[in-house]
Specification:
By secondary structure, the protein is an alpha+beta fold. Helix content is about 25%, strand content about 45%. It is built from 3 helices and 8 strands. The strands form 2 sheets. Strands 4-3-8-7-6-5 form a 6-stranded mixed sheet. A two-stranded antiparallel ribbon has the order 1-2. A hairpin with a 2-residue loop joins strand 5 (about 100-115) and strand 6. The longest helix has 21 residues, at about 40-60. The chain is globular and about 55 Å long. This is DUF4440 domain-containing protein.
Length: about 170
């Protein structure tokens, strides 16, 4: 069996009926390049999606918020079923946008890119207050999230998978 890292060359003899294999000695360096790859710009673009995500919630802009997600988004909230696709996500979130104001801050901890996929894990705080008035009914003082992003044909990035939950234990029932 060939050794890992060795290159073998098969040669056919003049009759084409017999072949020999010769081991090539030396080093071969391969350079793989991809045009217009700027990892730092891609990371900044993904982190901008996070900023736009918070802005959309804070301004109550459901359309902007949805536009940051792929059509086949998988959203995995804590203590609830996952949402599959942008239309199901709209159906699940439209009542929240209609009835609550949000205050959200997102703090990226690590963002990486590999080709047309990227991920970011972040911490966040969020609160929801009824638009009709009243106390904040949902507050997340210490949350964490992991998102997977896909580069779109136009070069932009969108969230394709999102999982988030709290670092604060749920209240106990006595």
């Amino acid at each position: 069996a060939p050794e890992l890292g060795s290159l073998y060359l098969a040669q056919a003899n003049d009759t084409g009926t017999d072949s020999t294999v010769k081991k090539l000695q030396g080093t071969i360096t391969l350079y793989v390049t991809e045009e217009n790859v700027d990892v730092e710009a891609d990371i900044a673009a993904i982190e901008d999606v996070l900023n736009q995500y918070a802005l959309a919630l804070n301004t109550g802009d459901l359309e902007l918020w949805l536009s940051l997600n792929t059509d086949d988004i998988v959203k995995m909230p804590p203590n609830a079923p996952a949402s599959f696709g942008k239309e199901q996500l709209r159906a699940n979130m439209e009542p929240a946008f209609d009835n609550f104001t949000f205050e959200m801050a997102i703090y990226p901890e690590e963002t990486q890119v590999d080709g047309d996929l990227g991920y970011s894990w972040c911490t966040y705080t969020v609160s929801m207050t009824p638009k009709a008035g009243g106390e904040t009914i949902i507050s997340e003082p210490d949350g964490k999230a992991l998102g997977i992003y896909k580069r779109q044909p136009d070069g932009s990035w969108k969230l394709s998978h999102d999982c988030y939950n709290s670092n604060v234990p749920p209240p106990t029932v006595e």
